[in-house]
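About this split. The held-out portion is used to measure sequence recovery: a designer receives only the structure tokens and must propose an amino acid at every position. Recovery is the fraction of positions where the proposal matches the reference. Here is one held-out target exactly as it appears in the evaluation file.
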């Protein structure tokens, strides 16, 4: 299903577009800014720099991968590169899965660079850093496949990037939004919106419960595992409680990547060239 030649082709395109070099330089610059901001802190300089840097690098990694995936895929369609590749002895499913695998490799590489940068910024708890790094790798991989899906469905690179980042923002805010709905005055409007938000939270990855910076400072057990608002996503909390945080992260990654690939395959195999 996965073509080694096509995976190498996509990774070569990432090097040709200077994605890796640019992201590494941006990560180093962000890490330097985090250290500078930590030095300006009155108390707990190391912890402040660690939390500030980890949060910023997390968003930087997601944005960089999403923009590359969306603009690369749309450019491939517009330049007829997709039609040329499909004229080779390669199926559409192999084309799709090879791209997803290549994007996942890029995601894991970016996550590894971010973890190294975070370990240099401060003195994180290493069990928390390990779980945080796994979580960030899963998060960036999910967003990379989401970018692949939206760039397949939408005809605009900027539109697909905005749609992917919109899903990312909603996934990051899901717990907070449901918590707000639970604390608002009881009336039929907020009841409908609250139930709608709970339904949406099942259909999107709960990234707000992944990659928490408190793990870096206090460790996983010291931070109390997963922090969440009361009644803000019972299904996700149940999974995290019974599967463990590592199991929860793994299941989320597998389930949502699979769903996005199935949706992408359904659209791509029906498309007429």
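Reference sequence for scoring:
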């Amino acid at each position: 299903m996965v073509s080694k030649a096509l995976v190498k082709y996509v990774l070569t395109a990432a090097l040709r577009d200077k994605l890796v070099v640019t992201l590494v330089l941006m990560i180093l610059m962000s890490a330097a800014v985090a250290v500078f901001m930590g030095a300006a802190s009155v108390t707990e300089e190391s912890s402040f720099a660690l939390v500030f840097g980890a949060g910023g690098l997390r968003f930087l990694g997601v944005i960089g991968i999403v923009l590359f995936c969306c603009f690369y895929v749309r450019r491939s369609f517009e330049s007829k590169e997709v039609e040329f590749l499909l004229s080779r002895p390669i199926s559409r499913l192999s084309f799709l899965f090879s791209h997803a695998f290549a994007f996942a490799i890029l995601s894991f590489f970016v996550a590894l660079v971010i973890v190294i940068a975070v370990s240099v910024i401060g003195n994180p708890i290493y069990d928390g850093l390990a779980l945080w790094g796994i979580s960030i790798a899963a998060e960036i991989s999910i967003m990379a496949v989401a970018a692949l899906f939206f760039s397949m469905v939408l005809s605009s690179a900027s539109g697909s990037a905005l749609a992917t980042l919109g899903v990312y923002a909603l996934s990051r805010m899901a717990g907070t939004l449901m918590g707000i709905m639970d604390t608002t005055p009881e009336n039929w409007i907020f009841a409908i919106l609250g139930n709608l938000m709970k339904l949406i939270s099942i259909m999107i990855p709960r990234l707000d419960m992944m990659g928490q910076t408190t793990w870096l400072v206090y460790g996983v057990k010291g931070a109390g595992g997963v922090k969440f608002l009361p009644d803000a996503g019972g299904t996700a909390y149940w999974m995290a409680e019974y599967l463990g945080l590592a199991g929860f992260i793994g299941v989320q990654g597998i389930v949502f990547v699979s769903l996005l690939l199935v949706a992408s395959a359904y659209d791509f195999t029906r498309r007429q060239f």
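Annotator remark: The mean pLDDT is 82.
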